[in-house]
Amino acid sequence: MVVDSRLWGKAKGLERPYPLMGHLVDTALIAGVLWDEVLEAGQRERIAAALGLGRKNARQVVMLWAGLHDIGKIMPVFQDAARDEHPGHCAFLDELRYAHDRGRDGQVGRVGHEHATAKAIPGLLGALGYPEDGMAEYQLRCQVGQILGGHHGRYPLGIEEDELEVAEGGMVELGSGAWARERHEHVALLRDLLGEPPAPQVEAVPVASAVVIAGLVIVADWLASQEHVVEERLTAWFNRPEPGTPGAVRVHATEMSALAPGIVADAGLGCAVFRTHDFAEQFPEITDPHPLQRSVEQGLRDKVSGPGILLVTAPTGEGKTEVALHAATVMGDAVGGSGVFFALPTQATANQMYERVRDFALRNLTDSAQVTLTHRDADFHERYQPADGSSGTKGADAPESRVLSHDADHSATSGGDGVSVEASRWLRQRWRGLLAPISVGTIDQALMGVLPLRYNALRHVGLAGKTVVVDEAHSYDAFTHALLLRLLNWLGAMGVPVVLLSATLTGETARGLVRAYLTGAGIGSPAGLPTPGYPGWLYADGRTGAVVTPSTPVGTVRSRALDITVRRVTHTYDPSVSDGRLSVVFEELEQVARAGGCAAVICTTVGEAQDTYAALRAHLTGIHGPGYTGWDDRASGTGETPGEGTLLRLLHSRFPAYRRAELTAEAESWFGRGDKKETRRPPLPRGAILVATQVIEQSLDLDFDLVLSDLAPMAQLLQRAGRVWRHAATPRPAWAAGPRLVVLASPAHGTAKAPRSWGDVYSDSLLQRTEELLTARQGATVAIPGDVQALVDGVYAEEFRSQDPDELFRRDIDRLGDDMARQGLAHLVMVPPPAVADLHGLTNSEADADLIATRLGAETVQLLPVYQDADGDRWLDEACTIPLPPRGSRRDGRFTRAEVRTLLHLVVPYRHGAWRAACTAEHRPPAAWRKEPRLARLVLLPHRVTPQGVRGSSFGDLNLRVDHALGLRAEKG
Q: Which of 30, 13, 26, 24 is nearest to 233 (CA)?
């Protein structure tokens, strides 16, 4: 077992090449720590059972596999890659024993070392006694070849039957003679160092375990490949007498065993351990838990012994978030791990939830554990602070550590220098956020695990150690819902606990979600699943399929009679039309303007929200006089609120990022729960009105005395109704006799149809069904929560009795056809169910994960407003005081993280469209920005600053202009 330590594994940028044997040992030993400290106990048991081994031997086997991930580097074409940088070292390649017909390699084509690993592994493991009978795709040794061949993020094609019959899988590039002997010697020495792990006598392991192992291998390789790790181990290797001998390699392994736990800890990896499962201790600020919270705590006690799924259905304000966090600790503990991933529908809701989850973790963890925020723009969320220095992190703009990768055999996909530069905050980098013990992010981060994208194994291993919480499970369209069902299928197969939260799920949809999980868990075709009560919950065991529901109906302390008033309006913005939309809005808000109180007007589109806001501003000026400034956040005022007169704000998605954050924080202060110290509700008789879009529907804890809403599907209306009289402690104005939702419907009964300006935001079918159902109830209050489930189910009822059945039939056909198309598209792009044997199909898409949108809709363009003065100079602000930087402040022209963050805080999203084709050179960012992926994709939006005011940019007949109060205004003509 003497290996040639001149065969190198890392060389680019190093003083001398690092022997491959050293890297194999490093990776294997780090994998052992990941097995012990990161992989939760339930996953270890599942892998051990699949291998037919005890946990100790299974650990050794996985360590061996991880170490062998780079065995394909013992290949002439790879070893030749260091000749230019290290010619003296590589002189050994000219020895006779390493003779190889390289001309033949050139004819065949350059081969990546990971593909070489995939071809070499079956023969190497066969020599160790791995079973060699049966079809190739069901042989464990072939599956391990695919797992290890996927350590660069994509699983290679499986080895064919005929390839098993020839040496090295028929890959001539691997080399024969000494090349083949060295591969066997490296395997033998590594196996000896690891205590000679046995050869499992089983077929291929279930794919749900295979992807977890693959993810663990990738993480171990990345940690072992960090520049500081390689340089330290390289120095130690050559400081020993007789480096490379079996004895010296054993000393190297002993030292690495001591270092590996620190390397894993420095990366922020580990487990989250919560000190208690007692709800009162977890949430000491809740002195009187809601009935739902008590019911779940008592109902799950002694009922959870393994993986399972919990579905919680309740109106907003019943404490579902606390229920989910409590249940996650209980369910996670049952599978030997307490990590959490909290998934939400949008970046804004994820940012809000991050604060709550972080605070929960700070109060309840027994020891430090990293909490990450995972979505595309997470790193630029102001409150997502860098981890503290104790975790080995550095300042925002400190020199960044590198992961060394000599991928000359990947010249088509890697940078020209062959080095991938990664930030020192290890968990904050691409693909890594879900690896943290606790993570909060957008649902897309989990759904990409069921799309065939590169490195989805990292999503699999990240989710495998957590309880996955999906909030707002009702809020996804048919495409995303189909992906969610497939994700639940996989999570069930992986034994991952799941908590689903919803305010407005139909009964059939609720049962379908649970059924998808149980099917993945191997329960077969679970039938007879009950519909959870409302409010209520249902827990299904992932091992037996047994269902637990509350022993008694779940009560509520928030029962209320909601008045839903349907006002029929003509969709016009002419205030002189008596039944026009604006006239009705002005009438309903009259008492807010004159007697105070808080109200919201929720509009369907950004454009209509802007028009409504502008009309209200003019109307309130008529009430308060020309000195009215309540709309202006920059105006001086009395007390703690700016301006004079009724406060008026606009909130939607088309504000610059910094401005939207300011407006959201202001809204939470004005309209938050009355007994919270952060809340500053305007004192009566001053009123406050928020005009908004759907952005205030979810996760924001806002409380209004009155809500006006455009017609929307029933589920959305009930969600908005959750913002009316949300908290009993909030003081109310005298005119507010009870919770009231005013729905602005079509002018005549039975004519519900979305205005042309709404586009396809909502289905005409659902609008008609909702309007007819509400009209039939006109005059009767809606019992919250008692009537909610019946209303949600009623809209989708097959036997729905319409006043215009022919029109509804036509609209239903359109809606169902659209849903089927979206579901069909989802099935075309998603990975297969977790019963597939071949791994290649799990990563065979070339799409960039950063550009994947897991919800259908127009692509979003990121606009950066710039302001051009009379001299042609460009600025970042309207006052022309902050110049547009042509390059970053670093010596090489690159931007610091803080500089990138500053620029992205000014960005405004806008939908892609025909206007994009009219962009010219003036809309491109400076050339130096192209080095920064986040900046290179920006589109500059020039504004001309003149003495007469600021003019935006025209793109054909479309003018785009950013206004402080209105946000991005898009006007035709």
A: 26
